[in-house]
Design goal:
By secondary structure, the protein is mainly beta. It has one helix and nine strands; from the N terminus they run E-E-E-H-E-E-E-E-E-E. The strands form two sheets. It has a seven-stranded antiparallel β-sheet, with no helix packed on it. The longest helix has 6 residues. It starts with 7 loop residues before the first strand and ends with a strand.
Length: about 200
Amino acid sequence: MLGGEYDYQRLSLNIFKRFYLSIVGITDVEVEGGKIFGTGVPYFLLDLPRANQTYAYQKRSYNLMNFLEFANDSYLSWKTEHFFNGFIFNKIPLLKRLKLREVISFKGVWGTLSDKNNPLKNPELIQFINNDEGRQQTFSLKSKPYMEAGAGIMNILKFGRIDVMKRLTYLDNPNIPVLFGVKGLGIRAMVKFEF
């Protein structure tokens, strides 16, 4: 419309729902799907799932994914967090006094990259980035989704959260986080003030 170099359209739908499960806690579920219509769209204009390479926990990002690791022109993603609100820790006297809260999470994205937008099949497109060793660093989500799961403790000193995260798929990609010798394992922390 404004004379851009690339002709494509992006369509996405995001749905969020909170489930109240009585004494067991609260579950937040977010599902998003999208499609990019166009031919020869450069990979940096495709859907690049939100990655996080810091040690800070980010609710809407994939905390063990590398930047620009995956590119899709159609995708379905999900993010689920369950807050137990003390359902487990309140049964342990010391933890009950500290008012710690337990949380689990599960995130994933499943997508495809059509041949018309895939730089590996079209040499005239801008190519994926390679690392210093010449290895490819950006991939399409082939036959399985990217998934990660985590378990954490909230309400540390009233405002802190620490999660242990585990990457479940694509463990052979380059630069995967390693913790205590376990590939795809990481620790993330978050500080949140609520009034």
